[in-house]
Specification:
Blueprint (H helix, E strand, L loop, with lengths): L9 H19 L4 H28 L5 H39 L22
Helix pairs in contact: 1-2, 1-3
Length: 126
């Protein structure tokens, strides 16, 4: 189904995209490397399926009915929410990594030397 030619009409493309979106939501609720990779593959497939639906509708010259337009708008909303989620997650992780690197290097977030932490007791054996 990945090449877009397996679909007979736009409605099939949209239904397949909706099914893949349900699977993406399920995968994202169980974080793992495999889930992330599968979700990325499915999101690319959704993009292809929606493009296929648009091409079929354009070629046939027909306008989508109200139900089909509603399904497409729902998918667009879901994709927009996921895009916002991924952007915010990326920003959070980037900031967190910057803070961790800064502290490990011995500096504050403002770039000044971090205060020294004194150790109460030190035992040396030898």
């Amino acid at each position: 189904m990945g090449d877009g030619t397996a679909y007979g009409d736009a409605r099939e493309c949209i239904h397949a995209a909706k099914a893949h979106m349900r699977e993406v939501r399920t995968l994202l609720s169980k974080p793992s490397t495999e889930s992330a990779e599968r979700s990325a593959t499915l999101l690319r497939e959704i993009e292809v399926q929606l493009g296929c639906a648009a091409a079929i509708l354009k070629k046939s010259g027909t306008r989508p009915d109200l139900a089909m337009r509603s399904e497409v708008e729902d998918l667009q909303d879901q994709v927009a929410v996921l895009a916002q989620f991924f952007a915010q997650a990326d920003q959070l992780l980037s900031n967190w990594l910057r803070v961790v690197r800064t502290r490990r290097a011995g500096y504050t977030e403002q770039g000044q030397a971090a205060p020294l932490v004194l150790v109460n007791k030190l035992t040396v054996e030898g």
